[in-house]
Amino acid sequence: MRENPLVLHVLGARPNFVKAAPVVRALGELGVRQGIIHTGQHYDALMSDVFFADLGLPEPVANLAVGSGTHARQTAALLVGLEDVFLAQEPDLVVVYGDVNSTLAAILVAAKLGIRTAHVEAGLRSFDRGMPEEVNRVVTDALADLLFVTSPEALAYLASEGVPPAKVHLVGNPMIDSLFAALPALDPAPVVARLGLPSRYAVATLHRPANVDTAEAARELVEAVLEVSRRTPVVVPVHPRGKARLAEAGLVDGETIKVIEPLGYVDFLSLVRGAALVVTDSGGVQEETTMLGVPCLTLRPNTERPITITHGTNRLVTPALLPAAAEKALADGAATPAGELPVMWDGKAGPRIATVIAAWLKGDNLAPASQAKRPE
Ligand code: UD1
Ligand code: UDP
């Protein structure tokens, strides 16, 4: 390894910023040389800039401005842009986060250039290859040299896919580190006042392609959310992906429903903290509600985060069952987590990851890049 090795973090989409902030901070404290490459997959100020400010992330050293497109077009732009950056910057380690297209592209480019890689949030599986994220997860984990796992069941999944256990580290959840760091700033009152909400309200977020990409799915979903709003006002910070389709399906501002722009990180979590109920299809929000003890109804047939059901406040629901499930959750009041909180979701995942990376960068006995094991 070179003297003073360089670590590059590749970030592109809203949840990436939340997961990376604690890792960047902890590596900085260890004096590791590092930089952020922003791919520009998310580019609206409310999907990107606000997170750098709220999370105290340093300015990116490069922004590839890849923007939006079909999977092939966006991924192709990411591959080309990232190859140029990696060739110019010569990183010793590329760190990728979660399961977005920027994650997939970065691991692929690094693997082909022989650059070592680390994947934060490895091993999550919905076992639903119809989700674009599941494809990204499987490919990313097959190529990563270091795999950081947030949840114990991921260890078995990775082992069953032939990932050598020596590459895998259970470290806890850096998204929860960010939540812990923000806790003192999370005050529902100003956001609730600004939005003119009553003290009891629900929050909904929807952006999964299966929910918002067809008129039929959007209509079913919107009808269910409107039904919930007749009992308790609902505020919906709308992800740009579903904005037009959800509006066409009838999700518009009304007496009991507030349809707003995406919120910044601190405002959003403040709102969630004060909510009586969250309805979502987000991965990260399932985890955050578990930690905040807010009941969460997830509009999906499956989740790659089952620990939020077994150890948290999450339940999967269909649109048809949402109104009744919401009524029950609201009647039951503050959610009691289903079990003990997930192991190592304690705000210290970032320092654990940084310690492993720093030791790994110093090591003189590193395994060859993405060493694969021949089946017995
Ligand atoms: C992406 C991730 C998804 C993640 C989500 C987090 C992939 C395949 N999907 O989905 O896993 O849960 O981010 O939010 O990587 N758009 C804007 N402004 C922006 C960004 C997007 O208007 O700043 C609109 C564009 O119309 C774009 C659409 O949203 O076509 C989808 O954006 P894209 O990044 O392709 O996927 P997401 O649905 O955001
Ligand atoms: N989030 C936010 N503002 C919003 C909606 C979500 O700050 O209006 C945060 C949320 O707290 C979590 C992250 O964005 O930290 C989750 O991102 P998203 O739901 O877009 O992606 P997913 O987790 O589903 O990949």
Could you walk me through the main structural features you see in this protein, from its secondary elements to its overall organization?
- The protein has 376 residues and is of the alpha/beta class.
- The chain has 2 domains: 6-173 and 344-361, Glycogen Phosphorylase B (Rossmann fold, 3-Layer(aba) Sandwich); 186-332, Rossmann fold, CATH 3.40.50.
- It contains 16 helices and 13 strands.
- The chain has helices at residues 14-29, 49-55, 71-89, 101-113, 132-143, 153-160, 174-182, 188-195, 209-212, 215-229, 243-248, 265-273, 283-292, 307-310, 322-332, 349-362, and strands spanning 6-11, 33-38, 62-63, 93-97, 116-122, 146-149, 168-170, 202-205, 234-237, 257-260, 277-280, 296-298, 314-316.
- A 7-stranded parallel beta sheet has the order 3-2-1-4-5-6-7, sandwiched between helices. Strands 10-9-8-11-12-13 form a 6-stranded parallel beta sheet, with helices on both faces.
- Helix 5 (132-143) links the parallel strand 5 and strand 6 (146-149).
- The chain is globular, with a radius of gyration of 20 Å.
- It starts with 5 loop residues before the first strand and ends in a 14-residue tail after the last helix.
- The model has no long low-confidence stretch (mean pLDDT 95).
- Residues 13-15, 41-44, 47, 68, 74, 99-101, 132-133, 207, 239-241 line the site of uridine-diphosphate-N-acetylglucosamine.
- Residues 13-15, 41-44, 47, 68, 74, 99-101, 132-133, 207, 239-241 line the site of uridine-diphosphate-N-acetylglucosamine (UD1).
